[in-house]
Amino acid sequence: MPDSSLPLHACHYTEEVFALLGKRWNGLLVDLLLERPPRFDEVTTAVPQLSRRGTHGTPDRAAGGPTRTARGRATAPVAVTYRKTQRGIDLRPALDALRVRAAAPTDSEGNPLPFSAAGHEAEAG
Q: Boundaries of each HTH hxlR-type domain copy (predicted)?
């Protein structure tokens, strides 16, 4: 049993993670980036509640580093694709654990199924 006479200390690492994931859309955006590098329009389609205006810069802020913007083709408007950084990749186990805790469909070993897999049909509608 832990010694209840010891003072409590907030972990600055936990604080850093929740400063990132605690913002309204950041956790969801990092989760999208873990699927594959999306284009700006794909992000706004996947998260329709996120306004187009509110999306500008959000994936870049979303990780204090887990995303990186790659401005690709010189089109009008410029094609913007987001990709994850190592910090974003490192969040995968935590996001998977949260998804399982939220009762997402899992495989026989308890790993969350990708959204495109069978078991997510109810969510797609």
A: 11-110
- In terms of pTM, does the model score above 0.85? no
> What CATH number is given to the structural domain containing 95?
1.10.10.10
Q: Secondary structure of the chain in the HEC alphabet?
A: CCCCCCCCCCCHHHHHHHHHHCCCCHHHHHHHHHHCCCEHHHHHHHCCCCCHHHHCCHHHHCCCCCEEEEECCCCCCCCEEEEECHHHHCCHHHHHHHHHHCCCCECCCCCECCCCCCCCHHHHC
CA 19 to chain centre: 13
pLDDT tens-digit map of 55-87 = 555 555 554 455 555 555 666 666 777 777 888
75 is a domain residue: yes
In the numeric block, which tokens belong to residue 3? Answer: 């010694």
